[in-house]
Amino acid sequence: MRKIFVSLLAVCFVALGITTTAFANSEGIAWDKAPGKVTDLASLRNGAKVFVNYCLNCHSASYMRFNRLKDIGLTDQQIKDNLLFTTDKVGETMKASFDPRQAKEWFGGTPPDLSVIARSRSAEGKGTGADYLYTYLRTFYVDDSKATGWNNLAFPNIAMPHALWELQGKRAAIFESREEHGVEVHVFKGWEQLTPGSMSPAEYDQTVADLVNYLQWMAEPAQNTRVHLGYAVLAFLLVLIFCAWRLNAAYWRDVK
Amino acid sequence: MAEFKEISPNAPALAKVSNWFENRFPTAFDAYRVHMAEYYAPKNFNFWYVFGSLSLLVLVIQIVTGIFLVMHYKPDAALAFGSIEYIMRDVPWGWLIRYMHSTGASAFFIVVYLHMFRGLLYGSYRKPRELVWVFGCAIFLCLMAEAFMGYLLPWGQMSYWGAQVIVNLFSAIPFVGPDLALLIRGDYVVGDATLNRFFSFHVIAVPLVLLGLVVAHLLALHDVGSNNPDGVEIKGPDAPRDAAGHPLDGVPFHPYYTVHDIFAVSVFLFVFSAVIFFAPEMGGYFLEYNNFIPADPLKTPLHIAPVWYFTPFYSMLRAITSEMMFALIACVLAGAGFGVFKSRLPVVFKAAITVIAVVVVAMMLQIDAKFWGVVVMGGAVVILFFLPWLDHSPVKSIRYRPHWHKYLYGVFVVVFITLAYLGVQPPSKLGERISQLGTLFYFGFFLLMPWWSRLGQCKPVPARVTFVAH
Lengths: 256, 470
Fold this sequence. Notes:
The complex is a heterodimer. Chain A is an alpha+beta fold. Chain A is about 45% helix and about 15% strand.
């Protein structure tokens, strides 16, 4: 009986595997793996700094309180001195410094709230939300056909300009035109650095990795506590399982 | 009034307390005896028999965590999404309560599906347990309503658009459909009114019905006694009993099955906690990624998929295309033809079958396939209620049925899982064909059961349960 089920399930999974490959998400390029670790507090602190300095001008993180940054090793005083631009209370949530109505006028849309952005951008077959953000923030290129003068490989025709361009410098993307199945397609070939940024490419990648790491953490600030507690809970349950198993055996010994 | 029992003044304190209560509330003591200490359950229960108690455990988890969530949740279209994030960030241990509730929803369906499959394997719905099964199916139906309405509450994109799609299905019903959909939504689109009424149903109406049905399910079960993997009646007139009249093949539920279930509960909690603490999103299946984007009535997501536990039925809905209608019409005609030409029914019945078939086929040609999709989806659940009267096998348990029945049940499981998988995926030509075949198999399995369950040579059923001492 069990054998039949196992073999049928195996057939089922193989069949499913064949059909899955047909449904790969085709929007944008393939994603790079985000290198960040949400347990790396130094990286998170650097990411928080970049976030507050570059992202918070246009985007809010309206479910995130400044004083939650204490979880990544900052003190109230450090938060007050270095990170509060839009408010003077550490208990406030992170609100963008400019008016959303103006944003709509300038970019054609309100910049999305970034509190849970890393959780919302995962896609099956492509990667996690962090992978997406890590790829997205590193693939802006100059495109004069767009209103902002910028375009992006991970999010084609994006309305947002390159916020970190001073760090990365201006880059152009080189495309090769090719005919595929009778249709002309543009295939990405490589980058051309037009003006240098204040950071080397390696430094820039590291900064983006820290920022993405921070976004990932901010999407669920309790996640490190959750995992830590998880080990303790599972350890306790293992003991409980053992006791329950022996208790059960002790009672059932009498049943003939 | 019951007889007042005196107790010796020298009796232990605990016995005195117990006696004091028993004199004042004998019903509770009787219930304990009838349902726990003197409820004899077959001693040969196996792994499959833990999912009933586990369902009850998950129900309690859902109710208790739900009570705490409601303390901070705001059923308001402008505040709902933010209040969930408030629970996740600012409410002490809010994240744990929320993950227990969201994981609990999926866990509920896992244990209930396994519990139902157990019933299917061992014929637990057969006489005299038809009502136990019917109450169980009603619980499953309530659970689907509860899960569907609860899923709107986080007010994310999937909450919103999932509700939009499902409520719109009702508008496919001829004549009353659009008004019915309006009544459910309370507005012309899913909005604040919808959120409020779904909240009300999710936290009050449906749980009340659910609890009542669970009580009925358990009382009916304890009246007729539990089935077992052998399908042998341990309390039947010929069943062996000891001097006190207790069945020899049974053991008192307490303590034997309470310790058994404590073991099962601890293993379940291990798996449940592993998900809560290490993979609460479960790769986008328990918490969908799109649901972390607040509901936006102006932005339809590219791909709207219900949560995994609804997807087998959602697949069947999508399988009903106008093309598929011809296959269904052929099935109706074949069924009617069989009834008219092959059966030995009186002429009146044959005439009735012919008339009904003609009317149904005419309706199938007239009314949009979308409506029939809804009928098929609803029918896939409703057909379960009729299982006790569809199964005509001479034996209850799969153990003593013809060998090929096992393969048939195996294929049924594979079809169900495949339908579930296809329901998660975006529509595709190949997926559509497979889900159409799956739908035909699913309904064929049940509707042809009166025929196929009688075929083949059953093995002899033993007089007593098979039990090997531990």
